[in-house]
Amino acid sequence: MVIQKRVNQIRKFMDVNDVKLSIVWEPDNQFYLTGFRAISYSRPIVTLLEENEVQLIIPGLEEAHADEKANVDRIHVYYEQYGLREQVLTYIEHLTNILQQYPRNTKIGVEVGVLPASVYLFVQNMGFLLVDIGAKITEMRSIKDAHEIELLKVAGHLSDLAIGESLKNVRIGISELEFDSYGDRLLLEMASKDYPDELIGYADWTCSGLPRSEMPHLYSSTRKFMDGDVVVHSRQVWFNNYRAENERTFLIGNVTERQKDLLKLAIEAQQVGMELIRPGITAGEVDIACFNVFKKAGLADYVQHRVGHGLGLSEHEEPYLRFDNDLILQEGMVYTIEPGIYVPGVGGFRHSDTVILTNNGSFSVTKHARDFESMRF
Amino acid sequence: MVIQKRVNQIRKFMDVNDVKLSIVWEPDNQFYLTGFRAISYSRPIVTLLEENEVQLIIPGLEEAHADEKANVDRIHVYYEQYGLREQVLTYIEHLTNILQQYPRNTKIGVEVGVLPASVYLFVQNMGFLLVDIGAKITEMRSIKDAHEIELLKVAGHLSDLAIGESLKNVRIGISELEFDSYGDRLLLEMASKDYPDELIGYADWTCSGLPRSEMPHLYSSTRKFMDGDVVVHSRQVWFNNYRAENERTFLIGNVTERQKDLLKLAIEAQQVGMELIRPGITAGEVDIACFNVFKKAGLADYVQHRVGHGLGLSEHEEPYLRFDNDLILQEGMVYTIEPGIYVPGVGGFRHSDTVILTNNGSFSVTKHARDFESMRF
């Protein structure tokens, strides 16, 4: 039902823009419009939207899976096994067959920002006119409905469990990856108990000590925690594909006064953002308000990134909380609030929480303690 | 040194094809040519190759990281923070500045199979002629050098530890995700002990019981193991970005004779492939030889996929072991051997190992027991 509503919205957009068929390539967009998500890698999966039909092109090894999960009208399968030489062997053959039903100069919708150039050129060379539908899908995805919000709440809850368990196990001598794994293990145990037969995933990125914590985004490594470390820990947990982000910066043992002060400042900046964000203000205003906390402290030069990104099916979703974004925020949008500061020789400092905009404010689906005292080990 | 050699190979290709500048977009390709790999998501990173210079365009939050890791001649940074409004704010601005130094109709290399259409069109609209360099990089990456093979051996060893530990903990009532996590935890513990300050990653996909095990590729869920389950467990472990794949199908408790027979058959088919693969034969021959094991048993209709894929930096790499691929295999290629069979109402059966081709045969970097008796719990 929700999916039907989404498909109808795209169809309306197609109708207004005289687009007869849309090719949806990005896996999260396809999930959003069909309910089907597969591990694809080297075997393309394509969703095709027309006025009266939704079709899916899939590789043979996803046939049973798609039959079970995909809310589509028709499924086209391509095969790669020896015995089926007489069958369709590539996705492009199905795509060609479907496109050939339209006359030259028909308008075809594509996600121009993600579709591989080779596919774009292939469709163009068949004589069609290509129109972007990616921005429209992005805009639709930015407003979450009640069901999506319920999934995000569960994801937030599970991320809190995980981060809490990892933090309980902080000690000198364990590696970043071991630290991550304490929380992951409890996450999987609790999720298995409380949410049987569901999809749960997670990712962790832990940057400890110097210089790693100065770099906002690194994969976790086998570096071991040491006395005096600043640790920036990032975590995403997804429940039935919907992601919550939960990040905490913490201090181990004998850290310097400067390190303590910077963590307090990052916490303060985050509070400013979380209290400010609501429908009616612009994305840029939130970014600037947090930035000004660092600026007032004379630390503007050490800010390296915007204050937050949208969240949902993808790791990062548009639109962004960035100073030059004049978008007016709306109810149902989901954002991370994560002002960060990174000072060479001192460390990086950033908390991140996932907030959902309500009709007159916001609430966070991630609730683990954020205060300074809770971040000392 | 290795990286310099790779860059020189691309430059030779560019020279022959009159390409003056190449835009490398795919993250694994960029790592291959610069040694730098970042978590990117919504912030593009671009490598540019010219005759005399390798340049990198990166977002501000990767500046310190790239300074430390990237083997490039010049780094261009784009910023997104409020205080730096006078700076370059997008990657496309840097790209434009660099491209503008060339006259119209200059040939520009791009990976046409992965570059987003929007970027392709942007470059094309500046008046340049675009030439594919993706196939050349893919071809280069398919032959691993001694250093890459060492990394793959470590990845294989670590995947064996992980899979062994997960299998030690098989029991009724634990979920797929919990099963995965036993091995992951030991992996991280052992890797932290034996390989300090290195990058290690992992991914698991476990499909248990019916109908999940009939579907070759699913994300692990919170479904719990039951008596009589067939379980197809897939695992990749990467060490400094190089991946080994290790998959085992196992049986829990009271399974049927048919299920036992099918597992034995899948093991036999894999043995055929592992013994056959060597330089000088074609990719297709390996696929067909394994397929024929299933065909002889009257089960050709239940094969759903090719026998293997290349492996290295990416989850799947070209070229593929597929019946219609006439490519002659060479020393230094890396392949998974994973013939599978999937019978509705019975289950799926597939082992996968990662083999490296030597001058006269091959060896597997994944060594966990594969025999039938070791797969019963």
UniProtKB/TrEMBL annotation, chains A, B:
Keyword Lipoprotein: no
Domain Creatinase N-terminal: 6-143
InterPro entries reported for this sequence: Creatin/AminoP/Spt16_N, Creatinase/aminopeptidase-like, Creatinase_N, Pept_M24, Peptidase_M24B, Peptidase_M24B_aminopep-P_CS
Alphabetic keyword roster: Hydrolase, Metal-binding
Segments forming a coiled coil: none
Limits of the Peptidase M24 domain: 150-358
Keyword set includes Hydrolase: yes
Signal sequence coordinates: none
PANTHER family: AMINOPEPTIDASE, XAA-PRO AMINOPEPTIDASE P-RELATED
The family this protein is said to belong to: Belongs to the peptidase M24B family.
Protein's UniProt name: Xaa-Pro peptidase family protein
